Amino acid sequence: MCLTIPAKVVSVENSCAGLPVKRITIRDSKGEKTINALPADIRAGDWVLYASDMAVEKISEDDAREILELLEPKRYIDISRLDSAFLEILKACHTRELRREEIIRLLCIGDDAETNALLSEANTIRQARLRDFFCIHGIIEFSNHCVRNCLYCGLRRDSKDIRRYRMAPDEIVNSVYDAVNRRGYKLIVLQSGDDFFYTDDMLCGIIRKIKEKCRVFIFMSVGERSRASYEKMKDAGANGVLFRFETSNKALYSSIHPGQSHDERIALLREMKKMGYFIATGFLIGLPGQTVEDIADDIITTKSIGANMVSVGPFIPSDITPLALHPAGSAAMTLKVTAVSRLLMPKAKIPVTTALETIENEEGRRLGLSSGANSLMFNLTPEKYRDDYRIYPNKYHGKEEFWEKYGLYKEEISYKMLERKMFEAFESFEV
Ligand code: SF4
């Protein structure tokens, strides 16, 4: 669903008889513009929620200010403390690709003034390129079985202390149906460990049933499967994949993913891109031995793959894994990476990941959305399974209803808007 944004109504044009919508002029932090409005009783001075070019509902001024506070925090930037080389980099990102050493320079910022300037620049680019197009997407974790043994993950094959579950195909379809048709979600990620209990036929059957029942984008996050499997899922109606490469450093990748090949993972991502999938990919921040140069390469790799959605989260240690004692990745670095990703990929979808929310709680959402991110991903896994999907402990889960309340734009037109934006993002990263 689209997250709607508050604005004050400046004037209302008299609607022509027979037209279902009115034309209104609104004012928000970026100035005035004229858009369509659905509420019939709208007047100058009212506050409305709008998405793209449509005001969808009137709200109280108090509610409007509460949302604006969340989306547009005030950052104090002391320009006198910014050096000219830093400002040159921020300027350069509008006209050319940033170089690796420039990305490293941005990631190494430790100073508050520069950090605020970077995050604000990313926020400005997000506003300029995507306007206020925020989305709330859903994720359903349908199985926590996994044949792999990644060192950082609580679902790894050797984890004995978790209760394993698998949702039945009809249960998965019904969960998606509820999320889409009752709650208004338009994009759902179906996620599991690398669990081959679900055959290609089963997954394709699930996708087809969902597509028969709902207007929804389906992203598959089911791990490393054959190219043929991904082709079948695409033919069945899957739109995208969420498939991270985790790190671009091959030695680091091998050390934490026993038995897996970095080259094959990247090759599979490139194949998926050619198949026409929307690509959601990214990496972890704070892996053992990871350097800032690695992170710069991770961002460059994400872009080179043609990611339409950038998924970046801090590593969080799980007490039942070999990396239990390794410190968590930093929220500050995650925000810088979010911002630099926005500088390099202005039209990409960048969600605030649950891992950032887990480290920063509700503040993580606000900080992420004001640092270049433009979507949220809510966990819609049925309650009875949710705690068992323990990649790491104490996953943040909260205030979804508050956000859903403002994700009011649930109609067919919301699907169309998402489709248009996804297509634009897809086209801008054709490889
Ligand atoms: S990270 Fe993914 S592939 Fe690795 S163990 Fe966890 S669920 Fe399995």
Quick structural overview:
The chain has helices at about 60-70, 85-90, 100-105, 110-130, 170-180, 200-215, 225-235, 250-255, 260-275, 290-305, 330-345, 355-360, 360-370, 385, 400-405, 410-430; strands at about 1-5, 5-10, 20-30, 30-35, 45-50, 55-60, 135-145, 185-190, 215-220, 240, 280-285, 310-315, 350, 375-380.
Q: What is the molecular shape?
A: globular
Structural class: alpha/beta
Number of strands: 14
Q: Which class of the largest domain in CATH terms?
A: Alpha Beta
Mean pLDDT: 87
CATH topology of the largest domain: TIM Barrel
SS strand fraction: 15-25%
CATH superfamily label of the largest domain: Aldolase class I
* Total helical elements: 16
The CATH architecture of the largest domain is: Alpha-Beta Barrel
Total domain units: 3
What's the helical proportion of residues? 40-55%
Contiguous uncertain segments of 5+ residues: none
Describe it.
The structure is a single chain. The protein has 431 residues and is α/β, with parallel strands linked by helices. The chain has three domains: 2-71, Roll (SH3 type barrels); 79-129, no CATH class; 133-428, Aldolase class I (TIM Barrel), CATH 3.20.20. 41% of the residues lie in helices and 19% in strands. It has helices at residues 61-71, 84-92, 100-107, 112-130, 169-182, 200-213, 227-236, 250-256, 262-275, 292-305, 331-344, 354-360, 362-369, 383-386, 400-406, 412-428, and strands at 2-3, 5-12, 22-28, 31-37, 47-51, 54-59, 134-143, 187-192, 217-221, 240-242, 278-285, 309-314, 351-352, 375-379. Strands 1, 7, 8, 9, 10, 11, 12, 13 and 14 form a nine-stranded mixed β-sheet that branches. Strands 2-3-4-6-5 form a five-stranded mixed barrel. Helix 3 (100-107) crosses helix 10 and helix 5 packs parallel to helix 6 (200-213). The model has no long low-confidence stretch (mean pLDDT 87). The structure holds iron/sulfur cluster. The site of iron/sulfur cluster has 10 residues, from loops.
